[in-house]
Known about the structure:
Elements: H1 3-23, H2 32-56, H3 64-92, H4 96-117, H5 126-158, H6 165-195, H7 201-229, H8 234-259
Helix pairs in contact: 1-2, 1-4, 1-5, 2-3, 3-4, 5-6, 5-8, 6-7, 7-8
Amino acid sequence: MSIWQLLIQFVFRLTFGIALAMGVTSSRYVTSGFYRVHLWVLLGLNTFAALSIYTLYADVDNSAQVLISWQVVLALAIIIAALSYAGAVVWLYEKAKLGTMLVFAVAAVALMAAALATPWGNTRSTTGIVLAILDLGSSGLLLGVTMAAMLLGHWYLNTPTMQLMPLKRLVILMIAAIAARTLVSATGLVMQVRASETLELTFWIFVVFRWLSGLLGTFMLALMTWYTLKVPNTQSATGILYAGVVLTFLGELTSQLLSVDTLYPL
């Protein structure tokens, strides 16, 4: 699996999580500009994904199976970009109900695209398939909620009169996503250790890095954000969430790299 395929899958997971986080954030407390601007961000991300997928066609074998598979993923990336654009236009006119529906549509299509872009070749058991599906959802949720919380925290700097409840809810959801991600990763790691006779030192170094950055480090920053919001100090909380985004990205990219050649997601 090439680095480009990993990045494409990462973009789809991130898109799913951000869109889902925006969808569950009430527009009664957050201005419409938050949804509009960050749908433009998703438009840009998935335009990049579509162009990357199109470029990959020149480098892969021209067998019918490969082309059909990536043509579907390419079509889904274009659909996500189109839905993001349509959603941004709807939010421009402050049509909250229709805008929320389009945000959830972006999340659903992105999850589908991420599933199709995920390599399933190493998955040989029902347990492995279930774990891979849970890995996909929990990874996207953690990436997206952390990113959306940071973006919303930044939005408070532009609109300081907004209530803090939506941001607090995203931080709680972030902690729940970390718990779910930890459970999935721990289960996959235990099953991988049982299935492998020997594991190299390099493997364990990356596993430790993945846990310290993407799980434990992110959890500590989520707690720091929560207590900072009790002050309240949204500017400091946003700075902490910036660091949380970096750690989450490092942790999830490391997890994807580790999971390429293993039977279970890590």
